[in-house]
Design goal:
The protein is an alpha+beta fold. The chain is 32% helix and 24% strand. The protein is globular, with a radius of gyration of 20 Å. The structure holds adenosine-5'-triphosphate and magnesium ion.
Length: 362
């Protein structure tokens, strides 16, 4: 999804991918298949690039520091990216700069978990500090009997109060090395089993003061952490009307995919503009509402027979495939539809995604 933006900007995008089957490797000519966890591979690749950036957070921080020490321009810088790689580092820094977060503590054994629970109450959310994604590495513990799995690895985990939230929001911003920042409309992101399944832009019914506050929080974090590129701030809107930050991503994020079709400038284009220190494009929406629904791999092998039907049934809807092999529950694409009536848009996007997954056939 970054490649079309690079083409339009006249920028040559090079990709280092772990395998030739990866989505970007299938479409970007000259993709280098290498190991993003091997420093020598990164050094060889970076030698060809003016600027190096990421579409995930799994490149080891030590390697990024080595690249920077040898003069490679890495954006976002390793010191900023660390806050998206390590949830403990992120919590400590956000708390220090006054950003509202759930109550939290690093815990290493069941005794420390129980002591924290005595303060904030059960259930607790336990999170691996590094390496989790799509809800992997996150556990909800309802009592002290349910903490063993999270603590099994032996490394400290982050314990958080279980936030009583009304819904989850996301504030996506882009910031350039020159310090220019733009904020996308704050979206509602619906999670199922720890995975984003649906996004509505802007979040319906979000009071203006909370929308502005969420954008202000995201721009503040971007400035404080000196983020270069796109920053997504995942937030909870609590039942009592407060905002708490869940976590950060420093790359184009699932909650910003709607903008390919629904915003003047997509997050992918603004990520490239930002890391190249070009002026940023407008993040303004093109329609009152845009709904994006992820297409998850279904259990049926023939899940894609519905493709023609979906295209024909709703010509205003856009389908995006990622070129991934289908596995149950894996994100293999998304659909987007823009318009005025959010309930209608939601129905149409959900219907199309369910069809493509093979859950319904009419
Ligand atoms: N403190 C909390 N209270 C209540 N629910 C929570 C809390 N922390 C996380 N969750 C739920 O678990 C989901 C996944 O948590 P989190 O975003 O921290 O994990 P992740 O696996 O790193 O996510 P991602 O898929 O965004 O990479 C959240 O979207 C939210 O639904
Ligand atoms: Mg998350």
């Amino acid at each position: 999804m970054t490649h079309p933006a690079a083409i339009a900007l006249g920028v040559r995008l090079m990709v280092l991918a772990a395998s030739p089957d990866e989505s970007a490797a299938q479409v970007v000519p000259g993709t280098v298949v290498a190991d993003e966890k091997a420093l020598a591979d990164l050094v060889a690749f970076a030698a060809e690039c003016e600027v190096v950036t990421f579409d995930h957070e799994h490149v080891p921080p030590d390697h990024l520091r080595s690249l920077e020490a040898s003069g490679v321009v890495v954006r976002p810088r390793s010191a900023a990216l660390l806050h998206a790689q390590d949830k403990a580092v992120m919590r400590a820094r956000l708390t220090a700069v006054g950003v509202p977060c759930p109550r939290h503590r690093l815990v290493a054994d069941p005794g420390e978990v129980s002591a924290f629970a005595a303060e904030v109450g059960w259930p607790l959310v336990l999170k691996r500090t590094r390496g989790g994604y799509d809800g992997r590495g996150v556990w909800v513990a309802r009592s002290s009997d349910e903490v063993t799995e999270a603590l099994r690895s032996g490394v400290p985990v982050l314990a958080e109060e279980h936030v009583d939230f009304r819904r989850e929001l996301s504030a996506v911003v882009a910031r350039s090395p020159s310090g220019q920042g733009v904020a996308y409309p704050v979206v509602e992101s619906v999670q199922r089993d720890g995975m984003c399944v649906e996004v509505v832009a802007p979040a319906p019914g979000l009071p203006a003061h909370l929308a502005v506050e969420a954008q202000r929080i995201a721009l503040t974090i971007a400035a404080e952490l000196d983020v270069e590129g796109v920053l997504a701030v995942e937030l909870f809107e609590t039942v009592d009307g407060r905002l708490l930050v869940n976590e950060l991503a420093m790359r184009p994020h699932n909650s910003g995919h709607w903008g390919i079709d629904g915003a003047v400038t997509s997050q992918f284009e603004n990520h490239l503009r930002a890391v190249l220190d070009l002026p940023l494009g407008s993040p303004a929406p093109r329609a009152p509402y845009t709904v994006m629904v992820n297409v998850l791999g279904g259990d049926l092998p023939g899940a894609y027979s519905a493709y023609r039907h979906v295209l024909a049934r709703d010509p205003d809807l856009r389908v995006h495939w990622y070129g991934k092999s289908v596995r149950p529950g894996r994100k293999v694409g998304h659909v987007t539809v823009c318009g005025n009536d959010v309930d209608d848009l939601r129905d149409r996007a959900r219907h199309a995604a369910a069809h493509l997954r093979g859950d319904i056939d009419e």
